[in-house]
Design a protein that fits this description.
membrane, transmembrane, 80% helix, single chain, TM_pro_TauE-like, 257 residues, globular
């Protein structure tokens, strides 16, 4: 990673990155998937590939705060079913990053996000939602978990954009607000931490990127506190609408850049 590229940023650019870091904290404790906006800001200020390495430790900091807040609400059977497929997706994403340029990454992720949002909206209108997350034990539920798991692992590896994919899965599986946040908190803490060796091996994380992270991670905390305050004031229907809207905005932004 080019140290000069990272540190030759203006005050306004640093302010944009700080705002994006604050939004990471908010998204982790309130509206999962909203951090696709943070992804877009980082990719606009920094080189696209380098931005994923800078953003990853900030996401992990947000994950830690989310786990501390919602740890009692995680649904572990769902997590154990997802992890093998996610691991396969991370490996596929790593191989994709070896040869893909920034344009291919943006187009692929944007298309996947919009497809997931469309499928979720269609399912919610075509049938009654599953009220119990344990419904993923059915054959169709297991197939859905594997499909979303691979896509989630792939998108989180290549662009830190797995949040909207997993949001669509958890909504379609019938998770309520706190169960949604608790399950996604543990999921992304484990997945994002496991990505660190892959990102370092690709040269996306190094000493200079970590120095920039040290300056930005302080802004994650107030964002997380704001999210914790806001989530109790958002009803379930509005919560789900915000998650889907954030997914669509993130997908369109990636496609239109």
């Amino acid at each position: 990673m080019d140290t000069m590229t990272l540190w030759h940023i203006t005050g306004w650019e640093f302010a944009a990155l700080a705002g994006a870091a604050l939004l990471v904290g908010f998204s982790k404790t309130a509206v999962s998937g909203a951090n696709t906006v943070s992804l877009a800001i980082f990719a606009a200020v920094l080189p696209a590939r380098a931005s994923t390495g800078v953003l990853l430790p900030i996401l992990i900091a947000g994950d830690v705060l989310a786990v501390l807040t919602y740890r009692r609400h995680a649904h572990w059977p769902t997590l154990w079913r997802l992890f093998p497929a996610v691991a396969a997706g991370v490996v596929c994403g790593t191989l994709f990053l070896v040869w893909a340029d920034d344009g291919a990454v943006r187009t692929s992720i944007g298309a996947i996000l919009l497809m997931m949002a469309a499928v979720t909206v269609w399912r919610r209108r075509a049938a009654e939602r599953e009220a119990d997350p344990d419904a993923v034990t059915t054959r169709s539920g297991r197939l859905k978990a594997r499909s979303y798991g691979v896509l989630g692992g792939f998108t989180t590896m290549v662009a830190n954009a797995g949040g909207p994919v997993m949001s669509m899965y958890l909504l379609s599986a019938g998770f309520r607000k706190l169960g949604f946040l608790g399950t996604s908190a543990f999921f992304f803490l484990i997945v994002n931490t496991s990505k660190v060796p892959f990102s370092a091996g690709l040269g996306l994380i190094d000493g200079s990127s970590l120095l920039l992270d040290a300056a930005l991670v302080l802004f994650v905390v107030p964002g997380a506190l704001l999210g914790t305050w806001a989530v109790g004031r958002i009803n379930q229907r509005l919560f789900e609408q915000l998650v889907i809207a954030a997914t669509v905005v993130g997908g369109l932004q990636l496609l239109l850049r």
